[in-house]
UniProtKB/TrEMBL annotation:
Residues 27-149 form the Tripartite ATP-independent periplasmic transporters DctQ component domain. The keyword Membrane applies. It is a multi-pass membrane protein. It is found in: Cell inner membrane. The keyword Acyltransferase does not apply. GO terms for cellular component: plasma membrane. Belongs to the TRAP transporter small permease family. GO terms for molecular function: transmembrane transporter activity. The chain crosses the membrane at residues 7-29, 49-67, 93-110, 130-148. The lineage of its organism: Bacteria, Bacillati, Bacillota, Bacilli, Bacillales. Signal peptide: none annotated. Keywords: Cell inner membrane, Cell membrane, Membrane, Transmembrane, Transmembrane helix, Transport. It comes from Planomicrobium soli. This is TRAP-type C4-dicarboxylate transport system permease small subunit. One of its GO terms (biological process) is C4-dicarboxylate transport.
Amino acid sequence: MPNIRRVYDLFFSTILTICKIMLALQIIITSYIVFGRYVLNNTPPWGEPAILMLMVWFSFLSSALAFKDNTHIRMSVIDLVLPHRGLKIFKRMYYLLTLAFALFMVKAGYELIQLTSNSMIPGLKISSAWLYSSVMVTGVCILVALFGKARKAV
């Protein structure tokens, strides 16, 4: 079982590294656009669509990281109000709803990819499916995180 834990940690470590790279690229590209617009009087047509693509991917992937680490926004007052038995039931419902939502993200993301595969992102000249694939990939990441949380609970 230690191998599964290592793969799990490597998976999310890789996601974190990808998020860091995307954030750095957003800053670099934004700086380049501002420099081009105000100094060179020439804005690259690919800049803003690239930032949008990076921002969408960063937002979705980082939400999976927040779920994995329990760093997302939550109401902890429920933990204080509910009795222990009620809290256990509430947590099970939470995990079941999260499972349903992650499966929905995978399914809906796949459908979005199919719908947008023939349209292009102006400026980048790539398929819009690349933008919407972030939904499906994040759904898979949340499923992996849910699997990791279930393994810890057992």
